[in-house]
């Protein structure tokens, strides 16, 4: 199919850097939700979008801290509006609660392993951070008070983002029950790690190391909060223990909370404990972004 160059330019959607923001839906407690905001156009891929949860509009308020949230799903599935099955029935939901507490949340899409191989999802998070910095004046957010928070595979990507040399804007990183070392994983070609890397980790050791937060620790990284169930049957708690130890050796401030009786995604925990972990994590973020 061919078309005049001028027509292609005319019918193309506005670039995410310049596209107008969608109208906000107004929720309880004054929270505003901007859903499906495009932050990047990747050639040959679907548009990448994020949802923005913002505190109520207050013209006199200084820019608010920002949480960049990264969903889980074994790098293969998952949705940006989902913080894990234990919080799906919350009303109001977890992102609305964070916004009601005075922080903005950007929950992001990234390319899954069936769409692109590593480091594509990490590149997408970098692109989201760049877009959020560009549009911060419109959003009323303080990009220099940003924390990245992810759960499971999203926690792995959040940790890698915080350990990137170009992540100097980040004030903290939170990883819930996240893998930290992909190099020691099973050698089968159909594991989540192999599907992310394009081959079993043992076949691509350099790439597996690049994708392992425990191998990417550097002095000067932002503070970390690692939270992991001691009975996690999907991602062993030793992943967070090893990352905490490596961060400590590098002089990076780190808090490690291990949770007795908790399996992956907080399965097995009573509801009050899940609420408490969420609240304590939010308090940690607020302290990191003061």
UniProtKB/TrEMBL annotation:
GO MF annotation: an example: hydrolase activity
InterPro entries assigned: AB_hydrolase_fold (IPR029058), BD-FAE-like_dom (IPR049492), GDXG_lipolytic_enzyme (IPR050300)
Pfam families cross-referenced by the UniProt entry: BD-FAE
All residue ranges annotated as the BD-FAE-like domain in the record: 50-247
Keyword Hydrolase: yes
Superkingdom assignment: Bacteria
PANTHER family: AB HYDROLASE SUPERFAMILY PROTEIN C4A8.06C, ALPHA_BETA HYDROLASE
Descriptive protein name: Alpha/beta hydrolase
Record organism: Streptomyces phaeoluteigriseus
């Amino acid at each position: 199919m061919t078309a005049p160059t001028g027509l292609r330019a005319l019918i193309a959607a506005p670039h995410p850097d310049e596209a107008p923001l969608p109208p906000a839906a107004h929720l309880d407690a004054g929270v505003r939700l901007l859903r499906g905001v495009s932050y990047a156009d990747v050639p040959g891929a679907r548009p990448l979008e994020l949802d923005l949860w913002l505190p109520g509009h207050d013209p006199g308020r200084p820019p608010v801290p920002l949480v960049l949230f990264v969903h889980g799903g074994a790098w293969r599935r998952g949705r940006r509006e989902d913080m894990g099955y234990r919080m799906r029935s919350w009303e109001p939901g977890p992102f609305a609660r964070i916004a009601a507490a005075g922080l903005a949340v950007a929950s992001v899409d990234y390319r899954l392993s069936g769409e692109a191989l590593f480091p594509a999802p990490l590149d997408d998070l970098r692109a989201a951070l760049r877009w959020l910095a560009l549009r911060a004046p419109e959003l009323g957010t303080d990009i220099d008070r940003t924390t990245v928070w992810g759960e499971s595979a999203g926690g792995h990507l959040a940790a890698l983002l915080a350990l990137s040399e170009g992540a100097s804007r980040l004030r903290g990183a939170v990883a819930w029950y996240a893998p930290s070392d992909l190099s020691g994983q099973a050698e089968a070609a159909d594991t989540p790690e192999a599907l992310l890397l394009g081959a079993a980790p043992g076949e691509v050791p350099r790439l597996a190391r690049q994708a392992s937060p425990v191998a990417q620790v550097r002095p000067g990284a932002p503070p970390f909060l690692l939270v992991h169930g001691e009975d996690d049957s999907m991602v062993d708690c030793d992943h967070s223990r090893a990352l905490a130890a490596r961060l400590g050796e590098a002089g990076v401030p780190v808090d490690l909370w291990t949770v007795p009786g908790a399996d992956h995604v907080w399965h097995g925990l009573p509801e009050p404990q899940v609420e408490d972990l969420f609240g304590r994590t939010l308090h940690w973020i607020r302290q990191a972004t003061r």
